[in-house]
Amino acid sequence: xxxWEENVRKVTPYVPGEQPKKENIIKxxxxxxxxxxxxxxxxxxxxxxxxxxxPDPAASLLxxxxxxxxxxxxxxxxxxxxxxxxxxxxxxxxxxxxxxILFPDITYSFYDVWAELLRIPYRKVPLxxxxxxxxxxxxxxxxxIIFPNPNAPTGIPVEPDFIEDIVKRHPEIVVIIDExxxxxxxxxxxxxxxxxxxxxxxxxxxxxxxxxxxxxxxAIGSRKLIKYLNDVKYxxxxxxxxxxxxxxxxxxxxxxxxxxxxxxxxxxxxEWFKEALEQFGFQVLPSVSNFLFVxxxxxxxxxxxxxxxxxxxxxRHFHNDRIEEYLRITIGTDVEMQAVVDFLKxxxx
Length: 349
Ligand code: PMP
Fold this sequence. Notes:
The protein is an alpha/beta fold. It has 10 helices and 12 strands. It folds into 2 domains: about 5-35 and about 255-345, Aspartate Aminotransferase, domain 1 (Alpha-Beta Complex), CATH 3.90.1150; about 40-255, 3-Layer(aba) Sandwich (Aspartate Aminotransferase, domain 2), CATH 3.40.640. Helix content is about 35%, strand content about 15%. A 7-stranded mixed sheet has the order 2-8-7-6-5-3-4, sandwiched between helices. Helix 1 runs antiparallel to helix 7. It is globular and about 60 Å long. The N and C termini lie far apart (about 55 Å). The structure holds 4'-deoxy-4'-aminopyridoxal-5'-phosphate.
């Protein structure tokens, strides 16, 4: 190793799902929403101007819209470049002690990457044999807690009182609930942020609002938590959200009807597709997300993954302990999911 390399911060990076350059594929590997953003977002795009100037560092237009939408004060909202950015800032701001932070062994695989990057001690808490969280596992002394609700890549939710029991026991740490997929059927803990100063709820525009390409995420919590987050953000990069994102994010919030309609469609597709998979003999975890996590007793996940890819259908397969035999399949349009059914019919013939 060259001398200078000893001073390099070495990390094993997070590997996002593939974004193939090919046309005409069925892309069900990164939980994108097939319907695209509201037409109001498309219209607002034509009005983007003032690109000469820096954007509003506070992104007030968007922050105020999000605050009004959720019925909280603007001082309780933090925005970032996708929820990945919001989560990274939160790790930096809140997981700053010497004690281990806790998260599930099977969960969003970025958490351990940020912990490693930021030298935060952590412990992965095993899910039970049904891939469910056990709240008692999170009662012990620790430096912080984070998990998604519903969890990813399982899609399995917990109830708000499950989370409240954990938060209640831990006034000494920050508890972060990653609600990236909450709009597809989970129950939010947003109402709890008034009662618990140390509870942070993180959301994204990438899934239910179908705006992954714009990179907008946000967090809601107490004024104190948000102030600490902003202090870290302004010490890192003042202008996280760009001008188009601020305008188009605000436009998305204004179209509640489209938002509700497209979510309902995805949920409806998820339910018939789940039944179809079960007909093929798949075990399907009880997901309330825009994806299903599935395994088949007779067909190795890797084989299905590769065969589907050859047929132009992209699923997600994780080479991790306990889930090697599972595939995560994003819910696309009815036509796309029917194509998956047709592929499986042929594959299992
Ligand atoms: N949390 C979870 C659980 C996710 O699956 C994702 C998507 N990869 C994210 C956060 C980040 O999403 P984004 O940065 O697009 O908001």
